[in-house]
Specification:
The protein is of the alpha+beta class and 549 residues long. The chain folds into four domains: 153 residues, no CATH class; 165 residues; 46 residues, SH3 type barrels (Roll); 125 residues, Alpha-Beta Plaits, CATH 3.30.70. A hairpin with a 2-residue loop joins β4 and β5. α1 packs antiparallel against α7, α7 packs across α9 and α9 runs antiparallel to α10. The longest helix has 40 residues. The radius of gyration is 46 Å and the shape is elongated. The N and C termini lie far apart (129 Å).
Length: 549
């Protein structure tokens, strides 16, 4: 059965073949000038304002067999027929022996000013023919009042002219095919290439599939000793990227035998782009298993609170990987990364404004993972919500309340809340105020105090040095005693059990003293009103008058 990765590999090959076939030679008119170039770039009708355009348009003209036009990209004082022959001969030498990346040529009217050559000269590389070495040079010349243009130098052409004539190179398969398939074309592409290119890519894809399938067991055996890397690297998740990588490498190798410079360059660039794509694909496939391994380790070590951080880092790693791969591929395809990065920056700012709350929650998640105010399974109080932390996600934290409901708190808010975590307690505070009846005598009160102190100091679950009972005040209808102690319990249910036992035994101590707990009450006394003492009143008034006199 054909796997999905194999089908993807085959579809990739077909798509690439269509892209290659669709690359008909561009018209010999000058390529459009970039926006940053000078206005002179657009004024030359043959597109000779930059080294890149000169070489590209020269190759295009020769491939279209327009030698008269191709001769206009050559410098020197040669007659037109000689220039046409030299154009063809130069193209043959470049196809066979020149290793050149046309995309690396300067696209500036002034050329590359940092190559160590004179300002008006560019070098495409050297060609070795027998014992002779010829450097392919471009010169920037100005004819009359016209803008400067770039031409193949007269020095190069003189050296080429001295070489023996070489027959034009053709594909090895063309002499073996019917003339109809070679001479006729469809959409500017020879008929045989509509079959030859997809078939070649299909063969490379099959070889890549076989090589990847056979190499995986060897990799597993190589890495299996003392580790799990063999099973990790040899898993089915990596078969697809491995096949694409082998496919790209075989394509690059086959491209080195292409009979023209443009074909060799096109397929080499496609192979490099596929390698970059494969690297990103492999890294994406690696992220999930590694993250899952970390999650398993954290759960085994009871560190569930860090699982959300792993989720966050996994998503961030995938996002960064995709962005980096896209930028690398755009760079390989000749896109100006300065503009692309500027666009991404502007888009990032707009996205940040549009997703303020989301980003706030993401950063809140990072803060929660860093500070660890609570963990999954702990009883906490977040604001007015009390419950057990059930999950800490990338955006929010879920709390299970005593009513068995779920309260979702955004992490941006949770990171700035006052959080009370009950789980880290090593002991729990026992504090009660009891009231005895006002009729309780001092001796009875002393008996109660002594009995409760003895109870607290002798109980195994009470921290002795923290236990105390004091007669603290005369209440409105009771004599108030304050009882405090730390109970050696961390579980709420266990604490309630100990507290219940202590309260019952305190009641026994109160009863044993002969008194009882007080209840809110009032006592009313009824008596006859004796009125005011008239003698004392008259004496006080007289004393005041004497003082005033």
């Amino acid at each position: 059965m054909i796997s999905r990765s194999s089908l993807l590999l085959a579809l990739t090959g077909i798509a690439l073949s269509i892209a290659a076939l669709a690359q008909a030679p561009a018209p010999s008119k000058g390529a459009p000038a970039p926006a940053t170039a000078a206005a002179a770039v657009a004024e030359d009708p043959l597109g000779r304002a930059t080294p890149h355009d000169t070489v590209l348009n020269f190759i295009t003209a020769v491939e279209k067999r327009d030698l008269a036009r191709a001769a206009q990209y050559l410098g020197g004082r040669f007659d037109p027929d000689r220039k046409a022959a030299l154009a063809l001969q130069l193209k043959q030498l470049m196809d066979k022996r020149l290793r050149l990346d046309i995309k690396s040529l300067s696209d500036s009217p002034g050329g590359d000013t940092d190559d160590g050559l004179p300002l008006n000269r560019e070098s495409l590389g050297e060609i070795e023919v027998g014992e002779n070495t010829i450097e392919i040079l471009l010169d920037r010349v100005q004819r009359g009042k016209n803008p400067p243009i770039w031409l193949f130098s007269a020095e190069t052409l003189l050296n080429v002219r001295k070489l023996p004539w070489e027959e034009p190179s053709v594909s090895w398969i063309e002499p073996r095919l019917p003339a109809t398939l070679v001479e006729n074309s469809l959409f500017g592409v020879a008929l045989y290439r509509w079959v030859y290119v997809p078939l070649a890519l299909l063969i490379i894809a099959v070889i890549a599939w076989i090589v990847a399938r056979l190499s995986f067991p060897l990799i597993q055996r190589l890495f299996r000793a003392g580790s799990h890397w063999g099973a990790f690297i040899g898993s089915e998740n990596f078969l697809g990227p491995a096949r694409l990588l082998v496919f790209a490498l075989l394509m690059w190798l086959a491209a080195q035998f292409a009979h023209t410079l443009m074909t060799r360059q096109f397929w080499s660039h496609v192979a490099v782009v596929l390698v970059a794509l494969t690297a990103g694909w492999l890294f994406l496939r690696t992220i999930d298993p590694i993250a899952s391994g970390f999650e398993g380790q954290m759960r085994d070590r009871s560190q569930q609170h860090r699982v959300a951080l792993v989720h966050l880092l996994r998503g961030l790693a995938k996002f960064v990987t995709v962005i980096v791969v896209l930028l690398v591929m755009l760079s390989l395809l000749g896109v100006n990364l300065t503009t692309a990065i500027a666009g991404i920056g502007i888009g990032g700012v707009a996205l940040a404004f549009a997703a303020q709350k989301t980003l706030e929650n993401v950063f809140g998640t990072v803060m929660l993972m860093t500070d660890q105010p609570f963990r999954v399974g702990e009883l906490c109080k977040l604001g007015d919500t009390v419950g057990v932390i059930e999950d800490i996600g990338m955006r929010s934290t879920r709390v299970r309340t005593a009513e068995r409901t779920i309260v979702t708190v955004p992490n941006g808010q949770a990171s700035s809340m006052i959080v009370e975590n009950f789980a880290p307690r090593d002991k729990m505070w026992f504090k009660h105020v009891i009231g005895l009846r006002c009729e309780t005598t001092p001796d009875q009160l002393r008996h109660v105090l002594a009995g409760v102190r003895k109870l607290l100091s002798g109980h195994p679950r009470v921290q002795a040095d923290s236990a105390r009972i004091r007669f603290v005040k005369f209440g409105a209808s009771s004599l108030d005693l304050e009882i405090c102690a730390y109970l050696l319990a961390t579980d709420p249910d266990e604490f309630l059990n100990i507290q219940e036992e202590l309260l019952l035994r305190i009641m026994d101590a109160v009863e044993a003293s002969g008194t009882a707990m007080a209840f809110p009450s009032q006592t009313m006394y009824v008596a006859k009103d004796p009125g005011l003492d008239a003698a004392k009143s008259d004496a006080a008034i007289a004393e005041i008058r004497r003082s005033a006199a």
